[in-house]
Design a protein that fits this description.
Strand order of the largest sheet: 1-19-18-17-16
Distance between the termini: 65 Å
Largest sheet: 5 strands, mixed
Helix content: 10-25%
């Protein structure tokens, strides 16, 4: 009888550990759901391989082509999308780029991240004002593990995700020197926190954005369904966890192997809200689709949260998109569909 009681206690303890509460405020749905139809923008002058990010500053659009054969960045006029120039040449020379992971406008200057070179490159307006010229290169501190994203905090500081597992973000100065680290991974997986932090950090890879006007830094997980909001003005931190929970993975030879879902793939912090593209597909479904020749990539949903993390609205899209830019003035969502030859879409919200 005692043996049965001991077994029951062990089962209860294991169940309790398996269902440990996640470190965040859960959300289940959005109060408003709206379906949107996209309008394709015709382009005559650019061929994209994987249009990964779109950034708009004033009357200029910059589009990052993740797998470009010649130039990683294509510039267009906005809103007519007439071609301006190409930059960020792919190659092995000192001024070329080996890879391009993200780009950020900083006023009229454009910063680009090359993870393979561990460099940030700044492009500024030419004297004629019709193109961007390479002005500055920042080599990142060797203590920073392969940076895959960044934001410009101010004119002297960048914020880069930390993939060592020791913290959430690295603060870096304009010379590339690591200044300090901030935050921790808000995971309920205590075993991984104690024994597999690098693998945990890989699984918690997040896409980030920062708005200097309201001081909000947002991070959304590539796996699972977690939104983190850091208000850098009042030092508050909010974690919101959706129905799919935190990133799920297993550890193999020190690496985090995903086992759950593909979650978010882009985020933008506007002056009044946070917009995030969400996929929600299981790796099993993705593998089965690939076996049938369906290589569709991206998400059909744009989630809208308040700056405090409250769910506001969910947009369902008639296209699968990877990146968005929110034009609040004209109430337009500009999106990139990596699966189309003409990838730029306009959605009226």
């Amino acid at each position: 009888m005692k043996t049965c009681t001991d077994i029951l206690l062990i089962v209860l303890l294991v169940s309790a550990c398996a269902s440990a509460p996640e470190k965040g405020i859960p959300y289940n749905d959005f109060p408003v759901t709206e379906q949107l139809s996209g309008q394709t923008v015709p382009l005559d002058t650019a061929i994209f391989h994987f249009p990964y990010r779109i950034r708009v500053q004033g009357d200029t659009v910059a589009i990052l082509d993740l797998h470009a054969s010649e130039h990683f960045i294509q510039l267009f006029h906005y809103p007519d999308f007439s071609y301006i120039a190409s930059l960020g040449r792919r190659g092995d020379s000192p001024e070329d780029m080996l890879s391009a992971e993200n780009l950020r406008w900083d006023g009229n200057s454009l910063w680009m991240l090359d993870a393979n070179k561990s460099q940030l490159t700044k492009y500024g307006l030419s004297l004629s004002g019709d193109s961007l010229l390479r002005e500055e290169v920042v080599s990142l501190d060797k203590e920073i593990l392969r940076a895959l994203d960044f934001v410009v905090y101010d004119d002297s500081t960048f914020i880069v995700p930390d993939y060592s597992g020791e913290s959430r973000f690295c603060w870096v100065d304009r010379k590339g020197k690591l200044l300090r680290k901030m935050g921790e991974i808000p995971s309920a997986n205590e075993e991984a926190l104690m024994q597999a932090r690098p693998a945990l950090a890989q699984a918690w890879r997040s896409f980030i954005d920062y708005n200097p006007r309201n001081g909000v830094l947002a991070a959304v997980t590539q796996l699972g369904e977690v939104l983190e909001i850091y208000n850098l003005k009042d030092s508050t931190h909010v974690v919101r966890i959706g129905p799919h929970g935190e990133p799920k993975f297993k550890v193999a030879e020190g690496y985090g192997i995903p086992t759950g879902i593909m979650g978010f793939c882009d985020v933008q912090v506007t002056d009044s809200a946070i917009y995030a593209v969400f996929q929600g597909r299981t790796f099993k479904d993705i593998a089965e689709a690939a076996q049938k020749g369906d290589m569709t990539d991206g998400g059909r949903y744009v989630y809208v949260f308040s700056l405090e993390g409250e769910p506001l609205r969910k947009y369902g899209l008639d296209h699968v998109v990877y990146s968005v830019f929110i034009d609040k003035l004209d109430k337009i969502i500009i999106a990139m569909d990596v699966n189309m030859d003409s990838p730029i879409l306009l959605f009226s919200s």
